[in-house]
Amino acid sequence: MKIIKINPIHEGIYNEIGYTWYQTPGALPSIADEIVSVTETEGGNYYKAAEELYDMFVHAAEFAIKNRLYHLLDIDESLAAMIEHTWEDERHFHLIGRFDFAGGLDGIPIKLIEFNSDTPSLIFETAVIQWMLLRHNKMDETMQYNSLYEALKESFIRLRGLNPEFAGSSRATPRALFSSLDGFAEDENTARLIEETALEAGFITDFEFVDKVFFSNGDGIFLKDAERYYRYDYWFKLLPYEFISLYEPDLGAILTDVLRNERAILLNPPYALLFQSKGLLKILWDMYRDHPLLLETSWQPLAGKSYVEKKTLGREGQNISIIDKTGRTVLSNDGEYGAYRSVYQEYARFPDDGQGRFYQAGVFFSYEPCGLGFRRETGIIHNNSQFAGHIVEG
Fold first, then answer.
1. Which residues lie across from 100 on neighbouring strands?
2. Which of 128-132, 226-230, 367-371 has the lowest mean pLDDT?
3. Would you state the pLDDT for residue 168?
4. Which residues contact 238 (CB under 8 A, 6 or more apart)?
5. Do residues 115 and 51 make contact, with C-beta atoms less than 8 angstroms apart?
6. Burial class (CB in 10 A: 0-12, 13-18, 19+), 216
7. Model confidence pLDDT, tens digit, residues 127-174
8. Which of 174, 208, 331, 393 could pair with 322 as two cysteines, CB 3.0-4.6 Å apart?
9. b/e map of 78-106 (b: 16 or more CB within 10 Å)?
10. How far are the Cα atoms of 120, 275, 317, 318, 332 from residue 321, in angstroms, in the given order?
11. Strand partners, 343
């Protein structure tokens, strides 16, 4: 693979635009000072893979719902009603997710690793930072597979078309609230970036931390100031659904009623949790066995081959082990998701730069594939692994 050395952007510029979570003690800078060269064919193949896989995920999720396989996916039954309600109603549009891929460069075949479909990270890096890297280095910033910002804006326009008179509102302009947990700069800035795309799409928007939002079974989702309550037609929250079922079950019950009473649209919709669960990778394998984009996946360790053990609802590279064909654990990361069920996925080859760093491609999907970027690491890719932008050459 071809790696291009670039001049890094000064930290002061990152601070000016609110990009602060790169300052992780003891870690490498979160933005690599090198970018990946991809050909038009390679970039196009990543997009084609994402488009095909999204349709496959839809069919696998439909199968899981019809057969009520929530327990296999480690999804709490308390979330089933809201999942099924939003699945059956096209107004509940899946706003954004990110496919992670092995391969795709150096002639290595593309293989699906997972689909981060509920609260994906790297939105800010993909939509903004990698574009800035090319501009900063006097390269042609249009030479990327990267229309993520524009795609999000178009998706919000699409949402307006799906909900012309949502909840019986007499307002001509819909209101959308964007939220994250307080104290997490990455989540806050990501939510605010997505809020900006909704504002450009014609929404009235606000941001507030989750703990300051008001919820009512019959009336919906609100903010309150000194004079009045403001009700919102849409709520985008960087708060995983499984966290709601674990730590705020009362909120889960309220949100279920909010959906049933047609008082708000949740973004991403609850059914995104089906895509998020790595248990769906096993269902995908059973439905599309030996598909060239898939890796063999099982509920039991794979005999006679190297594999990766991961947790159904694990995140950020936690609770992952790489086991070789003899059964020896080669690498392992601890984490806070150990209580979830294990999924065993065949080990896949990643492109490497000859310096011991492996590259994982991420492709965002918002109605269609819309943004390519890479994470790189010497071992298991995790939340603090470096992000590497790309440029299209040849």
1. 114, 362
2. 226-230
3. 44
4. 119, 179, 180, 181, 184, 187, 190, 191
5. no
6. middle
7. 999 999 999 999 999 999 999 999 999 999 999 989 876 644 445 789
8. 331
9. ebebbbbbbbeeeebbbbbbbbbbbbbbe
10. 22, 22, 10, 9, 4
11. 310
